[in-house]
Amino acid sequence: MMIKEQLLPKDGFLPVPQKWPLLLLCCLLSCAVSFAGTPVPASSAAMVKTKSLIVKGTVKDSNGQPLPGVSVLEKGTKNGTATNGNGEFTITVNAKGSVLVFSNIGYITKEIATTGPTLNLTLEEDKKTLDDVVVVGYGTQKKANLTGAVSQIDSKMLENRPTGNLGQALQGLMPNFNVNISNGSPNTAPSYNVRGGTSFFKDANDGNKIKFSAGSPFILVDGVEMDPNLLNPEDIESVTLLKDAASAAIYGARGAFGVLLIKTKSGKKGKSTVNYSNSFQWSAPTAIPDILDAYSIQEAIVKAAALENNSAGSSELVKLQKIKEYMDDPEHQEPYYFENPQTNTNTIVWRGNVNPYKEALLDYSPMQKHNLSISGANDKNSYYGSFGYQNQDGLYRINTDVLKRYNALLNVSSQVNNWFKIDFKTGFNTSTYTEPVNPAGKGGWWTAMSQEPSRNVSMPMLVPASLGVKAKYTDNILSFMDYGSSNKETNSNLILTASPTITLTKDWSVKGDISYLNNTSVQKTILPTLERLETTRNATTTVQTNPDYIYRYNFNSNKYTLNLYTDYKKTFGKHNFTGLLGYNQEWYVDQSVSAQRNGINVNVPTLGQAQGERTVGDTESHWAVQGAFYRLTYNYAGKYLFESNGRYDGTSKFPSASRFKFFPSFSAGWRLSEESFAQWMKPVVNDFKLRASYGSLGNQNVRNYLYISNYGTSSQLQYLLNGVRPVGTTPPNLIDPNLTWETATTIDFGFDLVTLKNFEINFDWYRRRTTDILTDGLKYPSVLGAPSPQVNSGTIDTRGWELVMKYSNTTDFGLGYDVSATLGDYQSKVVKFDNNPNNLISDATLYEGQKMGEIWGYETYGIFQSQAEIAAAPSQSLISSGLWFPGDVRYADVDGDGKIGFGNNTVGNSGDRRIIGNSTPRYQYGINTNLRYKNFDLNFFIQGVGKRDLWIGNNLYWGAGTTGTYETYNNSWTPERNDAFYPAYKNASRNRNVQTRYLANGAYLRLKNLALGYNLPNRWVNKIGFQKIRLNASAYNLFEFKHLPDTFDPELVSMSYPIIRSYAFGVQAIF
């Protein structure tokens, strides 16, 4: 393509040689040989021992499990060893009374004097040490020296959660890290956001609508960008979130809205360890509507007429009687009747009584997961290899949707000599999801299941072929599930990474990362013709409901990443310096091919066997980034901390004149607790640090080729040229010559406090302002024939805060516990938006001053009780010009003009509408608790939202018409029940305007996870050759406290695939 040829070489980007990974590795090896220092001297000869003593023993953790790889050193000497896989050691010491030092990462070091040939001991976890080192961009830092806003969790917080993907396991664990799970389908991929609103975006379904965007962070797995939902949670060692510009600046344009760093597991020192675990899970929906039976629905229709002083039609009364006849004797009655058999119209009327949800959904769906890993390490080499398998059924009763996933990972590290180390990573995962497909124009599955129970959902289609199907719903969902449709998607990812490290001196090293990531996606959709009922129950006719078709789609992408960086550290007295300088280049290309053809052969559903109209298409795109980055840190005596991160970044997504830009950040910290005047606080305040940071980052997550103008084509025109309908050409899009980066600037203030040794508090307040957001420019006359160009004209301001508290302890009788709590809040507001000069209030646009999630609506005074009240109230004819009746909603005349209306529908003149709520989740919190006693451990995790408003507009909430729930029906207004919450049970849109009375409270508290584990006693386990056998049982989304009707889950109020509640048990065996 011409675009591809002109893009990189001419605009400042170096071409990427096909063999650059190999050339780079050779260069690194050459540098290593040139700069290699003198080898480290070998250990001195063995000491001459007098009265030596052989000491044997076992080292265990607080749960009684053996600890492999523990260092055992005779104090004051170089005589040492390490425990084996069973925690056992043997060492010959100089003499009785010699002191042995036992140490291991993450445990409190213990010194014990030898008194005889046997020494057994227990090492306690060192909570402070576990958190001492934090993963940051291109390295690690001591937590005490951090000056940015960083959160980190380890693998233990992800264990024993019966979840299908990483996103579900991460939900609620870090403040202001928003994990959105759109529905409960096995194939649903959670989306991620850090600290709220980030930009604007055009609605994918309507390009004229502009909305707030809550963009995703830059997600790296072992330094390589990839989808975290494809990972096996069992392979994850730690997850670190870089939230402010100071900590994320080193990633430049890719980290404008946070960076998520995921580190996978590696081998631990000791002999080879095999770890097998499994989980068997059963899931059910958290909320299923309690659908009204067919008779109650029809009775409500008859009564609705009386509520408006009318009489139900004779056909409605007949249907009510017929439904009762069927429900009284379903074995001998047909679930339908003919409306007018005497006129021979044979119009079918359903009178069955079914609950579509119970007919179409399974009571429980199973899932099983199996994980096998082998790992080990010695002084020079380490390895970790794993294989994971997941098989998860969905909820469909017929043609059940199924997800199958396979994961494989191999991490190998080798210390070749004292100056050269090489790490290799190979990862592969593949998943396949199959599901039935609902025909186009027929509504989603979940809309279908909310239809009236009088339909017999197991029958073929009701609609005669002479009627269009688009006006009808899929009231017989089981037929659609069973008629042979299917969609099958297979996604595969391969990642290869080599990471050499050259140690030039003890303070200076050079590192590199070379990685390749391939993604392949294959989709096949089959939609055959559906047999539908014509005029009698048993006579079916083949009807082409949409055109039937077969669709194939193939997608492939390749991404190459190169990182080269060097770091240096030096200490002069109390002055501590570190520096990092590096270069990054990424190149990405993808291509796809799609084809569709009608008139399929159901016996051989292939494109070649189809006979109808065909459609083909393909796409190709690519982008590249280059950047040079740095990090400088300085601290004086561990008290005064300074850090600067920055990056000179370039991206192919912008014109050459504005392609490169420098994005710096600065941060500082003051460890007040280390000052001499604060030493009196040390017994209580163990560590206290104040932090501040400021920085800016560019955002390159925009469309490709924004700055390139080209002609387009349209489909066949509506006139003939020489007997042929020609293909048209569309005018080129307009380009703004000043197109440049969106820029996110963040300021952050925080503190870290450790008190009473075990109680930790972290707090941050921040403001992030995103400027130069890309939006449509000023509207041009339609005669121009081209849309407005994209311009940098928007600004969003987001402010928020977050709090983390942790406490851990062990009681005198051996109960260990730790509790961590997170709490966060944010609000985002439009500061500048030029596309709405009149400040119109609309779902299709934004206005300056608007907060993300705002809900505009009417205030209400309750429900009209009489015609006299209606006559005395301000006129509501602007809402509905028809008659109003007792049982209807009474709206408030806020502006006092004697009538209820929406004014000019602008912010300045909104009539009687006001901002009545906000749908943004506020005060999101999580509480994680772990208890340990002897061989038992218990974890429970509570997650929730403190404040949120929701407007629920679907029929399952309001009822009336041909559907509804008992919950609404039994609390709807009638003359005899005039204190009811809901208005009269009738299909009246005038009562359903957005308003205060029915604004739902979306706050909730949920027991997200409950897990109980038991380690079998070592005396049993060791006899059969195992190190550890653990039994566990867990539950996910166990229960919740909410304010919503029982029909809705607080995390999903739309009619979509329901959120699931899961129960699981499993076994872990280590040998």
TrEMBL record:
Give the principal location in a single coarse category: membrane
Keyword Transport among UniProt keywords: yes
Q: Which organism is it from?
A: Pedobacter soli
Compartments it resides in: Cell outer membrane
Q: Which UniProt keywords apply?
A: Cell outer membrane, Membrane, Signal, TonB box, Transmembrane, Transmembrane beta strand, Transport
Q: What is this protein called?
A: TonB-linked outer membrane protein, SusC/RagA family
Q: Which family does it belong to?
A: Belongs to the TonB-dependent receptor family.
Q: Which InterPro entries match?
A: Beta-barrel_TonB, CarboxyPept-like_regulatory, Plug_dom, Plug_dom_sf, TonB-dep_OMP_SusC/RagA, TonB-dep_OMP_SusC/RagA_CS, TonB-dep_rcpt-like
- Residue intervals of the TonB-dependent receptor plug domain: 143-259
Instruction: State the GO CC annotations.
Output: cell outer membrane
Q: Where is the signal peptide?
A: 1-36
**Pfam family of the protein (one):** TonB_dep_Rec_b-barrel
Q: Topologically, how does it sit relative to the membrane?
A: Multi-pass membrane protein
Q: Where is the TonB-dependent receptor-like beta-barrel domain?
A: 486-1038
